[in-house]
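Q: My collaborator sent me two sequences in one message, no labels, and asked for predicted structures for both. Can we handle them in order? The first one she listed is below.
A: Yes, handling them in the order given. First sequence, followed by its structure tokens:
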Amino acid sequence: MNFENMNFCQSCAMPMNDEDHGTEKDGSKCEDYCKYCYQNGEFTSDVNMEEMIDFCVPKTAQATGMSEEEARKMSEEVFPKLKRWME
């Protein structure tokens, strides 16, 4: 997978293609967040960064073939740099 030109959700770090983007209040595509994290101009869940990491680790491990320990280590490095968690 070529990550260089790929968009990542700034909430959960999921790689996004055109169909994966969330929506703004006016229905337009949100460039920063995926459809699972952001719809109609609002986040879909009220979680903190740790809770999001806990939710994403098993999915990341399954999608990438990493162990959950590796996925957690990567997530703990990446998530603090995502827009949602920096604000």
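Q: And the one she listed second?
A: Here it is, processed independently of the first:
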Amino acid sequence: MSGSFFAGSYGGNAANIDAASRLECPVCWYLYDPANGDELSQVPPGTAFANLPADWCCPNCGGERRAFLVVAED
């Protein structure tokens, strides 16, 4: 992988997001919301995206965690 990401992507840098940030898979548009966690991967509600396990990937399509896009807050 080249190490470059789309503008607005997480890119593996926790400084790009805060604990309540919601992020979206750029492949299938799965939305990770820390308030909900990820039941399939046994990630409890309240887990910030930056605190997900290192091997976590999109539970829908297997998309790479670093490519997830930050969802703009209204």
